[in-house]
Structure to design on (417 residues):
């Protein structure tokens, strides 16, 4: 190994600390097996419990038997399968769009579409808390980047007003912010697009399958059909498998299929993944009971945490963060919960600003009420051991609450963009 490289990675590792993750001995689900023990898992994006659903598994197995395990090249070079084509039709339908194009991940979809639609002479207006893959897509684009404060439409408007000189203006936002569980104010953003002649791209990674009467996402939730030009989503969260997509007009999709580099320069998804996703979309549109179960679980869990005095940061979705503040305390909190049989993610820098570390729980339809109850009890026990909540009900509040809120406001602008 080169001495210069070795020196560089060692120094960086000393600064960053060792990477770590758990190794699962079971499929994803409300409960998982780790180190031979059963844990309640609240850290997957498996919103509808589809990652191990028998209907999806069967569809994937059949596709492997018919088409094998690999596609061997990009679709534009070695051909597609009927499953990929059908999946795109079904996704377009789900999103109320004319057409869709499947990418290998949501990350690849963002990395492909943003530089393709926002070009030299244009400006991209991006929420400061947008997902890292949107940030990277913006970096790949030759357009000017204009970051606006999180969900701050007055700031967005100010920036739009100053950006009239650009050829095109694009606003891009997550529909659901993955670290906080907030929903973007899409109707107001659409109105700003109309006022300032901008077009809108929304990232529905945490919204598809979760929001909207048929799981269509934020656009369906707010009744904004036809108002959003670029609809991005993932097949890896609520839809249970892996992949990403862009939905939009026929012209947009035809253009992306010619120019999006993350579509052209990569081997396409195996038919098995496309088949699992196709089965997922069909299941989701047919059976609203799964989504009902998800939201029942969310209500049950949030009310339990709120009763204990936890700050769930105004979450409006199944993503329920529990604000702790100090990163080391958050790490200890997660570690003790794990020992108590509850697996949650500690989220700290660089995912979120310093001093706003949190435990992020994600509630799914796969959770049983008894497990959510056990989780709430474990939260109460461990936070008492750590001195984070006092024992008198009237004074129940996370001790670090006020300080942490202040840190959160101050630290917003430290997000890496
Ligand atoms: C997860 C996520 C992505 C990336 O999707 P993958 O399919 O996992 O690559 C993009 N945007 C947001 C908001 C996400 O949460």
């Amino acid at each position: 190994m080169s001495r210069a490289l070795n020196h560089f990675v060692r120094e960086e590792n000393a600064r960053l600390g060792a990477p770590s993750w758990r190794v699962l001995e079971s499929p994803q689900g409300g409960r998982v097996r780790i180190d031979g023990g059963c844990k309640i898992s609240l850290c997957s994006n498996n919103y509808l419990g589809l990652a191990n659903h028998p209907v999806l598994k069967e569809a994937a197995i059949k596709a492997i038997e018919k088409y094998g395990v690999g596609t061997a090249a990009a679709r534009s070079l070695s051909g597609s399968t009927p499953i990929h084509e059908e999946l795109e039709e079904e996704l377009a339908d789900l999103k109320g769009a004319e057409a869709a194009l499947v990418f290998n991940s949501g990350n690849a979809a963002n990395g492909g579409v943003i530089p393709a639609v926002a070009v030299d002479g244009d400006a991209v207006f991006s929420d400061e808390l947008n997902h890292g893959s949107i940030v990277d897509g913006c970096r790949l684009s030759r357009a000017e980047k204009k970051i606006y404060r999180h969900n701050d439409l007055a700031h967005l408007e100010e920036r739009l007003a100053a950006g009239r000189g650009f050829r095109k203006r694009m606003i891009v936002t997550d529909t659901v912010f993955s670290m906080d569980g907030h929903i973007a104010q899409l109707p107001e953003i659409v109105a700003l697009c109309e006022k300032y002649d901008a077009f809108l791209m929304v990232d529905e990674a945490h919204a598809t399958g979760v929001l909207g009467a048929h799981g269509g996402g934020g656009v369906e939730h707010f009744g904004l059909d036809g108002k959003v030009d670029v609809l991005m989503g993932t097949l890896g969260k609520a839809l249970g498998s892996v992949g990403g997509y862009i939905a939009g007009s026929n012209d947009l999709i035809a253009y992306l299929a010619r120019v999006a580099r993350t579509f052209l320069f990569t081997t396409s998804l195996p038919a098995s993944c496309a088949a699992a996703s196709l089965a997922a979309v069909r299941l989701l549109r047919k059976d609203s009971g799964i989504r009902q179960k998800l939201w029942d679980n969310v209500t049950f869990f949030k009310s339990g945490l709120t009763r204990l005095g936890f700050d769930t940061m105004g979450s409006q979705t199944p993503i329920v963060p529990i604000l702790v503040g100090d990163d080391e305390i958050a790490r200890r909190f997660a570690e003790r919960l794990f020992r108590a049989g509850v697996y949650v993610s500690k989220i700290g820098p660089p995912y979120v600003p310093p001093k706003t570390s949190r435990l992020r729980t994600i509630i799914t339809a796969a959770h049983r009420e008894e497990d959510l109850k056990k989780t709430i009890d474990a939260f109460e026990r461990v936070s008492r051991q750590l001195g984070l909540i006092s024992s008198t009900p009237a004074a129940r509040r996370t001790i670090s609450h006020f300080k942490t809120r202040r840190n959160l406001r101050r630290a917003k602008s430290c997000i890496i963009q």
Observations:
- The first strand starts at residue 31 and ends at 34.
